[in-house]
Design goal:
With 241 residues, the chain is an alpha+beta fold. The protein has seven helices and six strands, in the order ααββββββααααα. It has two domains: 85 residues, no CATH class; 91 residues.
Length: 241
C-alpha cells in the first residue's frame, strides 16, 4: 500500500505515519485531545480505575502480584487464551485473570473474559501482565529493580555489597545490553537479599524482586519448552488478546 492509502485507512496524515515509521518507534494513531470532553477521547486517554494485574496458568502458577489486594476487593475471571499468533507461552490455555481497583502501570490493551456468573467483561491489563503473555517477561523485572533502586539509593542501612550489586543490575537495564546480562545481574542481587533486612523499605522492595524473579524463572521454563516446538521465524504478536 502507498503511504497515502495507509494514512487514509488510519485517519492520520501520510506525513505523520511516515515520520513515525522512519523514527523506528510505534505508529500512534490516537489524536491529541484538549480535555476529557473532547470528541476524540478514547479509552486510551481515560485513566484506568481497574485492571487485570495478575493471572494464573492452567498448572497453577501465578504471574503478577496476585495477593496485592485483599479478598473481597478483586474478582477472578476465565480467559480462553487464543492469540492471533499461537507462539506464546500460554497459548491454548484457560487462564484465570484477576482484576480489581488498579490505576498504575495499566496499558491501553484489554482482554475479554468470563466472570463466575457467566457474564462477559472487558478490562484493561497492566504492562507486566501483557509482557508475560506476549513479551520477553522482563517488564516486571525492570519495574521491581527500579523500585529497589529507589528504596536503596542513599539509604545508609543498606550494606555496600548490596549497593554495588544493585548498581550493577541497574546499569544492565540500559538499552542495548543483552538480556542474559541483565537477568544474571538481577540474580546476583537476589542472592544478597538477606542484606536488605535492616531497612523496611529496602526489605519490601527486595521481597517484590524475589517474587518477580521466581515468576520469571517459571515463565522462562515455559517459554523455553515452547521455543523447542515453535516453527522457525514465526513472530509473536501482542496486537490483541
Amino acid at each position: 500500500m502507498s503511504w497515502q492509502a495507509i494514512g487514509d485507512s488510519l485517519g492520520v496524515p501520510k506525513e505523520t505515519i511516515f515520520r513515525q515509521y522512519s523514527a523506528g518507534g510505534p505508529v500512534i494513531t490516537a489524536k491529541p485531545v484538549q480535555s476529557m470532553s473532547s470528541p476524540g477521547v478514547t479509552d486510551m486517554h481515560r485513566p484506568a480505575t481497574e485492571a487485570v494485574y495478575a493471572f494464573r496458568s492452567q498448572n497453577g502458577n501465578w504471574f503478577g502480584p496476585h495477593n496485592a489486594l485483599p479478598v473481597g476487593h478483586f474478582t477472578d475471571g476465565t480467559l480462553h487464551f487464543e492469540p492471533a499468533e499461537p507462539v506464546t507461552a500460554f497459548a491454548g490455555q484457560v487462564l484465570t485473570m484477576r482484576f480489581g481497583p488498579w490505576n498504575h502501570d495499566v496499558s491501553v490493551h484489554a482482554c475479554q473474559f468470563t466472570l463466575p456468573d457467566g457474564t462477559q467483561r472487558r478490562v484493561r491489563v497492566t504492562h507486566a501482565v501483557l509482557d508475560f503473555l506476549f513479551g520477553d517477561g522482563q517488564t516486571p523485572l525492570r519495574q521491581a529493580m527500579t523500585a529497589l533502586v529507589n528504596a536503596t539509593t542513599l539509604n545508609p542501612h543498606v550494606p555496600q555489597p548490596l549497593h554495588a550489586a544493585i548498581d550493577q543490575a541497574a546499569r544492565k537495564m540500559g538499552i542495548g545490553v543483552p538480556a542474559e546480562q541483565f537477568i544474571a545481574a538481577v540474580e546476583k542481587v537476589v542472592a544478597l537479599a538477606s542484606l536488605a533486612a535492616a531497612d523496611e523499605h529496602a526489605a519490601t522492595a527486595m521481597r517484590r524482586l524475589e517474587r518477580v524473579v521466581q515468576e520469571y524463572r517459571t515463565w522462562a521454563r515455559v517459554a523455553s519448552r515452547l521455543s523447542l516446538r515453535a516453527v522457525p521465524n514465526v513472530a509473536s504478536t501482542r496486537s490483541r488478546l
